[in-house]
Structures are given as structure tokens and as C-alpha cells.
Design goal:
With 285 residues, this protein is α+β, with helices and mostly antiparallel strands. It folds into two domains: 5-124; 131-281, Rieske [2Fe-2S] iron-sulphur domain (Rieske Iron-sulfur Protein), CATH 2.102.10. Helices cover 33% and strands 13% of the residues. It contains three helices and ten strands. The strands form three sheets. A four-stranded antiparallel beta sheet has the order 1-2-3-4, with no helix packed on it. Helix 1 (5-33) packs antiparallel against helix 2 (38-63), helix 1 runs parallel beside helix 3 and helix 2 (38-63) runs antiparallel to helix 3. It is rod-shaped, with a radius of gyration of 35 Å. The N and C termini lie far apart (72 Å). Bound molecules: FE2/S2 (inorganic) cluster (FES). FE2/S2 (inorganic) cluster binds at residues 209, 211-214, 228, 230-231, 233, 246-248. The site of FE2/S2 (inorganic) cluster has 12 residues, from loops.
Length: 285
């Protein structure tokens, strides 16, 4: 007995969809491995996902009873015609099981290939940055220099002045960039343990915003805050660059300062915390 026309078409489309999905997912894995453009990766992934969805729809149409079903009440003594119908049902059942196996195999292949597309990007996760973030080039005795590499003397800035500085020998180093500013010494309310970090009113903070890493460089002297232009994170410079407004989850790391015998600014040590967005250090002490 031949299978219903609708089911036959659904079966064919389901097979095609699962095969296409498997090829699309495999294509994504290959595209990812050879670092093809994101557009190609996106196209392959879309094919994998769309094929899987279409195959599942075809599965439901091809293998699930579509109804309405009418069950005839059987006679006690089956007629010849009944016996023939029963045999036909058995035959159809055999076909259905075969089709289900085919569908099942293709579904496993398509799902497995699609799972590979999900797992493949894990390969891009490098080692956790961990202590690497702690190691900037700032350290005790390292001279503070400006963007031209000139040492910064203790009388370089007036109160209200601001300057981007780097550790000597690392001018333009992104991780080490620091904002140096000068305020009235008596105005500073240092966090505990930082009482001697700001000689003559000089304060130094990492220039990398703790929200998403934009450079923080707008110093508002009337309110004594540093502003990040990206999402308006605001840091109170007199109070350890505490985050007082906006999305930054933690203060800007502070650099302890000192003045050497020649009258130049030097670092008294490294940053108080690793510089950079807060998520880099989530869960760390
Ligand atoms: S990066 Fe500074 S507020 Fe978002």
C-alpha cells in the first residue's frame, strides 16, 4: 500500500532539510576554523539552524498522525477484505518504522553538527588574563613622564591642571596610561592607607574606565570629578576616584605618587587594583 501523498512529500523535505542543516553547521565549523569573514560564518550558521527547524517541522508532518482518524468496528469473523486491510496496515507500519529510523539518524546528525557550532567558539577562549592584568609597568621609583617622554616635575601643574602620563620607557602603553591631576592638598579625603599617595596635591588614577575601558580624561574642576565620555561614568577624584554616577562598577585604580630627590614625580608602587573594566576581575579578591 502506498503512503499518503502529503506524508511522502513531508518525508522528502525533512530528509533534505536535515542534510542541508548538517552541511550548514559543518560549513560554520570550517568557516570558523579558517577564520572566514563573520558574514560567511553567519550564513552557514543560519542554514544550519533553519534546516534543523524545517526538518523538525517535516518530522511532525511526516511521522505524526495527522487525523482525523476513524476506526471501524471490526467484525468478529474478518472478511477477506478485512484481512487484506490488516496486512496493508502491517506493511505501512513497516514503512513507517523505516522512515522513522532514517529521520532519527538524520536528526542526530543535524543536531550533533549544530551542537558543534555552539561548542566551536569555545576554542577562541584564551587563558584567563588573571595576574597579567596586575603587571603594568608602574612600580616603586618609576618616573612619571608625559606623552613626549619628558619627566614631570613637581611644579609642572597648577591646581586644577590635568595631564596624561606614562611610566618612563612605556610612553603610549595602553595599559599603563594614567591621568595625573592636581588639587588642593587639604581637599583630599584619601581612603585608609593612602594618606601619603598624593604629594603636593598630585593624584594619579588609571585612565582606563572600569566600565568598558574608554579613556577617562575629562576633569571637571568645579565638582572635582573625572568623567568618562562613553557612558558618563563619574569618579570623585578627592575620594579615591570612587564611582559616584553611571555604570562603572568600581573606582579607578589609584597610583601612589612620590617626589624624588631631583624634584620629579615618581610612582610609589603599582596601581591599587588591576586597571580595566570591572568584569576582568569579577570574583577575584
Ligand atoms: S566606558 Fe566609561 S562609562 Fe562606559
Amino acid at each position: 500500500m502506498s503512503e499518503p501523498r502529503g506524508q511522502g512529500a513531508a518525508t522528502r523535505w525533512g530528509v533534505i532539510a536535515f542534510v542541508v542543516s548538517t552541511l550548514g553547521s559543518a560549513g560554520f565549523v570550517v568557516a570558523y576554523a579558517v577564520e572566514a569573514s563573520p558574514q560567511w560564518q553567519g550564513v552557514a550558521l543560519s542554514i544550519g539552524l533553519a534546516g534543523l527547524g524545517a526538518g523538525l517541522v517535516a518530522w511532525s508532518k511526516g511521522l505524526m498522525p495527522q487525523g482525523p482518524e476513524v476506526e471501524e468496528r471490526p467484525d468478529i469473523e474478518p472478511s477477506t477484505d478485512e484481512e487484506r486491510k490488516t496486512a496493508a496496515v502491517f506493511t505501512r507500519g513497516r514503512r513507517s518504522i523505516g522512515r522513522r529510523r532514517l529521520f532519527g539518524s538524520l536528526l542526530v546528525a543535524a543536531t550533533g553538527a549544530f551542537a558543534a557550532t555552539i561548542l566551536t567558539p569555545i576554542r577562541s577562549l584564551g587563558p584567563a588574563p588573571r595576574d597579567k592584568l596586575r603587571s603594568t609597568r608602574w612600580g616603586a621609583g618609576v618616573r612619571v613622564v608625559d606623552e613626549r617622554g619628558h619627566p614631570v616635575a613637581a611644579d609642572e601643574l597648577d591646581v586644577g591642571g590635568v595631564l596624561t602620563v606614562f611610566p618612563e620607557g612605556a610612553v603610549k602603553s595602553a595599559d599603563d596610561q594614567t591621568v595625573l591631576l592636581r588639587v588642593g592638598l587639604e581637599e583630599i579625603q584619601p581612603p585608609p592607607g593612602r594618606e601619603d599617595w598624593s604629594p603636593e596635591g598630585y593624584l594619579a588614577y588609571s585612565k582606563i574606565c572600569t566600565h568598558a575601558g574608554c579613556p577617562v580624561g575629562l576633569f571637571q574642576t568645579d565638582t572635582q570629578v573625572l568623567l568618562c565620555p562613553c557612558h558618563q561614568a563619574t569618579f570623585a577624584v578627592l575620594d579615591g576616584a570612587r564611582s559616584v554616577f553611571g555604570p562603572a562598577p568600581r573606582p579607578l585604580p589609584q597610583l601612589p605618587l612620590a617626589i624624588d630627590d631631583d624634584g620629579f614625580l615618581v610612582a610609589g608602587g603599582g596601581f591599587s587594583e588591576p586597571p580595566g573594566p570591572g568584569r576582568w576581575t569579577l570574583g577575584r579578591p
